[in-house]
Structures are given as C-alpha cells and as structure tokens.
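Bumping my old thread because nobody answered last time. Still need a sequence for this structure:
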C-alpha cells in the first residue's frame, strides 16, 4: 500500500501504511540510493502515524542525508527525523518530545502542506474557516 513518494537528486523514499502489532497505524519507509542512473536499496524504517494527505511529498524533506517527515494519528501531528543506520532508518529526533512537548499545529486540525525548511520545520495548521475569503 504505497501512499507517498519523495525524490531528491540522490535518494528515493517510498512510503506505505500498515497496522502494527498493537493496532497503531504506521508509515513504513523504504530508502533507495540514486547514482549514475541506477537505484539500489539502502534502508527501511517505520514511524507512528500516516501521510494521509493528498500530496504526501509536501510532508517529507531530506537534509544532510536525514529524512524529516510529518505524520499524523487522529489529528495529532509528529515530526520525526530519520537517519540511515545500516539497512535501517532509525529515529534521531521527534517532536513533540519530553523536552519540547508543545503540539505541532492545533490539535483538532489538519496540517496544511506549506513548509519552510530554514533552520527547522514550520507548519501551518488552520481550519478552513480561518482562511480569508478570496
């Protein structure tokens, strides 16, 4: 069940969903290296939540070979940084966390695909009625 693809000049990420042992919905990511027109498998990892949006590539970004991905579970949003470790994509950091427990966006709203990756991630979360009429 593929529900997202993200491509950089040197990497291809393919995301799909599955249900974990405890019933939690997970996003499973496979990373492939792109070099001289050929692709090779690099690593696999999974995180809680889904990329349940119309264009999931807006919610993934690679920086210094780390994948930054925003997932949601029941409208609770989580930003995770994954790093290749052997053939595994291992979590390096997650927001919210114990040191920074503030929720990402508003709890009961979808995150919109507007991102600024300058010195971190910034997401806009609004209800449709929050947008001014055009």
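Sorry it took so long. Here it is:
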């Amino acid at each position: 069940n593929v529900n997202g693809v993200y491509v950089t000049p040197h990497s291809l990420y393919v995301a799909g969903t599955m249900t974990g042992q405890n019933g939690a919905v997970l996003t499973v990511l496979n990373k492939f290296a792109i070099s001289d027109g050929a692709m090779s498998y690099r690593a696999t990892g999974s995180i809680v939540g889904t990329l349940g949006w119309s264009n999931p590539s807006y919610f993934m970004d690679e920086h210094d070979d780390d994948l930054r991905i925003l997932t949601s579970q029941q409208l609770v949003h989580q930003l995770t940084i994954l790093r290749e470790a052997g053939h595994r994509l291992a979590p390096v950091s997650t927001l919210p966390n114990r040191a920074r427990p503030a929720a990402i966006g508003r709890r009961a709203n979808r995150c919109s695909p507007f991102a600024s990756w300058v010195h971190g991630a910034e997401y806009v979360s609004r209800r449709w009625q929050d947008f001014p009429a055009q």
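Strands lie at 2-7, 11-19, 25-35, 38-48, 60-63, 66-73, 76-85, 88-95, 111-116, 122-125. Let me know if any region looks off to you.
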